[in-house]
Specification:
The chain is of the alpha+beta class. The chain has three domains: 4-105, no CATH class; 145-229; 236-521, 7 Propeller (Methylamine Dehydrogenase, Chain H), CATH 2.130.10. It has eight helices and 31 strands. The strands form eight sheets. A four-stranded antiparallel sheet has the order 4-31-30-29. The chain has a four-stranded antiparallel sheet with strand order 5-6-7-8, with no helix packed on it. The chain has a four-stranded antiparallel sheet with strand order 9-10-11-12, with no helix packed on it. A hairpin with a 4-residue loop joins strand 10 and strand 11 (311-315). The N and C termini lie far apart (152 Å).
């Protein structure tokens, strides 16, 4: 019976302690033949397999007929297996397995070194290429920068040239607008002239390092502005305009405080404006053209007369208060008595009706033979004057008694007004004249400068000036002696209505050209 050399290593000592083997003559031998039969080489192989730290990988490698290199140990697992195998008596297959693993590990290390070297070489090559590209890029950049600088200088020169040219164009436009402003001033269109002159001032380029406007241009624009804004002392010039109606504008009235302007139009509306020309409110309940508008003496009520056969009363805020609806035809005019208690309405049904503010009909005046176009109370409220298409003006007392008939007009009388002191009556007619009368019906003066029908007439608050509105597209100002003081031009169609502000410094005109104009008196 053979044995193995006893070297007293820990494994042999542990084996001896089991009693399975004994040490005889320097050899470890099986202590019992039964043990030798049971614990034979196959048993040893099985137990050894259990003891191997790499048993699973080893078994799989052997089963692949030692060909599957993926089963070989690598890295730390190989190092642990080699450390374990020291001082062990292993099978040939174990040593073959470990040797194959070491060879594969060696090859892997060499391959890794090779890959690392290849990477280093590639990086070095890449760095070399990058450095070369960088040098070329820097060279191109220097060239591009030089080109950019040259281009910038050229572009700057071009931009300055273009800018200077644009400033010259702006100067030319400014001069052209100044010429337009002068032409408008010469046509008495001072508002449009002022706008054009101010536009020219704004357009004229300011002096700078590369451009100086011509001295002549500056002088011409300054002259145009001065001409647009200057009129003779006491004359009216266009200050502003009212634009917003969609059809002819028939009448205009100032509120007693002068802050609100009302306009009546064929677009079925009345519009309220500020004295600066800003639209404040639109009154829209009428179903047909609105011919006339009037403020109550306290300024809190507005009366409007319409072709829908009604008169409507409104609050100053635009709320509809009352509708007067007893007329059988178009209502042409409306007026408040000085105390505000009575409203007079004139109609195409040939009558004038008197109402209280609650809408109760008080009286009907019916002596006219044709449309009644105008109605007004005397300042003391005792007399009512009516103007008619029967070519007459009639004077009545408040009880409806006819006092006087004025008969010198040769055509329709379109409007009538009392002077502030009540001593003079002015009448406007389609015979192209305005006539002045005393309260007894005596003709005092005829104003005959208009070239077409005269639609409206108004006295200034001091009674010294009479304003007239005509189908010849003008308004005219006269003194009571019949001298023409000024002609207001600028409307493009009939001037239908004219009114003074309570302070007399502003005149409002309205026209069939759908606009109103405000004229300011200079020198006051």
């Amino acid at each position: 019976m053979g044995g193995i050399v006893a070297d007293d290593n820990p494994e042999q000592m542990e084996l001896r302690l089991t009693g399975l083997v004994v040490k005889q003559e320097g050899l470890l031998q099986v202590a019992n033949r039964i043990y030798q039969e049971v614990f034979n080489l196959q048993w040893v192989e099985r137990e050894l397999a259990k003891l191997r730290p790499y048993s699973e990988a080893f078994t799989a490698w052997v089963e692949s007929e030692c060909q599957d290199k993926s089963r070989l140990l690598r890295g730390q697992a190989l190092a642990d297996a080699l450390a374990w195998s020291v001082d062990k008596s292993l099978s040939d297959r174990d040593y073959q397995f470990l040797a194959a693993a070491q060879e594969v590990e060696k090859q892997a290390i060499e391959l890794e070194k090779l890959e690392t070297q290849i990477k280093l070489d590639a990086q070095a090559k890449a760095n070399q290429i990058l450095d070369e590209a960088k040098r070329k890029a820097e060279k191109r950049l220097r060239i591009s920068f030089a080109v950019l600088v040259i281009s910038f200088i050229a572009a700057t020169i071009t931009a300055v040239t273009v800018w200077r040219a644009s400033l010259k164009v702006a100067e030319a436009k400014a001069v052209r607008n100044s010429i337009t402003a002068k032409l408008l001033s010469e046509s008495n269109k001072h508002w449009e002239a002022t706008l054009q002159a101010l536009r020219a001032v704004k357009q004229l380029p300011k002096s700078n390092l590369i451009f100086q406007p011509q001295v002549d241009s500056k002088m011409q624009i300054t002259d145009a502005l001065s001409q647009a804004m200057y009129t003779d002392d006491g004359k009216y010039q266009e200050l502003n305009y009212l634009q917003g109606h969609e059809d002819r504008v028939f009448d205009v009235a100032f509120s007693p405080d002068g802050e609100t302007i009302a306009t009546a139009s064929a677009d079925n509306t009345v519009k309220l404006w500020s004295r600066q020309g800003n639209l404040l409110q639109t009154l829209t309940s009428h179903e047909d053209r609105v011919f006339d508008v009037a403020f109550s003496p306290d300024g809190e009520t507005i009366a409007t007369a319409s072709a829908d056969n009604t008169v409507k009363l409104w609050s100053r805020q635009g709320k509809l208060l009352q509708t007067l609806s007893d007329h059988e035809d178009t209502v042409r005019a409306v007026a408040f008595s000085p105390d505000g208690e009575t409203i007079a309405t004139a109609s195409s049904d040939n009558t004038v009706k008197l109402w209280n503010q609650k809408g109760k009909l008080l009286q009907t005046l019916s002596d006219h033979e044709d449309t009644v176009n105008g109605v007004v109370f005397s300042p003391d409220g005792e007399t009512i004057a009516t103007a008619s298409s029967d070519n007459t003006v009639k004077l009545w007392n408040q009880k409806g008694k006819l006092l006087q008939t004025l008969t010198d007009h040769e055509d329709t009388v379109n409007g009538v007004v009392f002077s502030p002191d009540g001593e003079t009556i002015a009448t406007a007619s389609s015979d192209n004249t305005v006539k002045l009368w005393n309260q007894k019906g005596k003709l005092l003066q005829t104003l005959s400068g208009h070239q077409n029908w005269v639609w409206g007439v108004a006295f200034s608050p001091d009674g010294k000036t009479i304003a007239t509105a005509s189908a010849d597209k003008t308004g005219k100002l006269w003194n009571q002696q019949g001298k023409l003081l000024q002609t207001l031009t600028g409307h493009q169609n009939w001037v239908n209505g004219i009114a003074f502000s309570p302070d007399g410094k502003t005149i409002a005109t309205v026209s069939a050209d759908k606009t109103g104009k405000l004229w300011s008196q200079q020198g006051r």
